[in-house]
Structure formats: structure tokens, C-alpha cells
Amino acid sequence: MDADRLRPLLSRLGQASLQDWGPDRVLRLVDDERLEWGDGRAADVLLDRLPDEAREQPLAWLLAHAEPLIADYYRRHPLTRSGFDRQVAALLERYGADAFAAPPGQLPRFTLFVDAGTLLAEPEQGLRYRYGAYCELSGAVSPAIASRCVAEWLARGEAYAAYLSMNVCRYNC
User: Fold this and answer.
1) Looking at the whole model, is its pTM more than 0.90?
2) Which residue of 120, 127, 142, 146 is surrounded by the most CB atoms within 10 Å?
């Protein structure tokens, strides 16, 4: 999720819904794809209350502050597994699954790196390339087998576990 995808979700809430925002309601970002009202007990709270300067025009304020809101959210929350998997699937479709796999001792064409809630395909020339996640194959295999291995890596949750392990201090320190 990024600010460009957050703004239409905020707009769909509508001004009237936002005007009724009370102390017993929070705005949640569910599965990194939709907004819902909640009671504050959920872990995925995007915003628990509107600041005083937003009371007159809450929608306008939220739209204007979408970037810092989403950046702050992802400083405190990792992507959900479904949000991660959805973004990985889009990258695999775009670049091919075998582009994210390599045999031991080698690196793939791309690694997976998350930046503020957005999953990136980091190329070899990228500064973060060596810090990204990828599927380590057991040996040299064909692109078709590499693609199947990457699909299994994703389905078993190993890709998500690698993402979390690389970011454990970010969310828990």
C-alpha cells in the first residue's frame, strides 16, 4: 500500500462517514488493501483519532496527509502475509518467477525488498539488492523448475518469513 492507493480508499469512506468519527472508532488498514472502521483492539490501526485541525474537513485533511499516514503506519507495522503475497505475485508476473531464484553461491537478477509498504524488485545495481529476499535453489535448474520452486517458496510462507526476519528489529526493537 502506498499513498496513491490509499487516497481512493479514503475518498470512498466519504465526508459523512468521517464526520461521525468518534472516540470509540478507529480507522483500520486491513490486509494492506482496504479500510474498515474498528474499535481499537485490532493491530492494524491506521489512525485512532483525527487531530483537531482535521475536524472541519476530515477527508481533505486525510487526503493531504496520506503520505505521512501510510509511511508512519509501515514504520510500525509489517506487511500482512496476504498483502505481501499479493505484491509478490504481481512482481513474479512482471519479471518472471525465475528472476527471483538462484542456486547456492549465486544471486538472482532481482531480490525482494520492502520499502514503506511497497514490495520492490531490487535489481543487481540497486543499493539494497544484497539485502533483499530470494529463493535459494538446491542447484542449477531450468527456468521452469526455478519458477515452480519460487511458487512453492511463496506458498509455504518462506518468502514472507524471510521478509519478517530481515525486518524483525524494525518492528520489535
Assistant:
1) no
2) 146
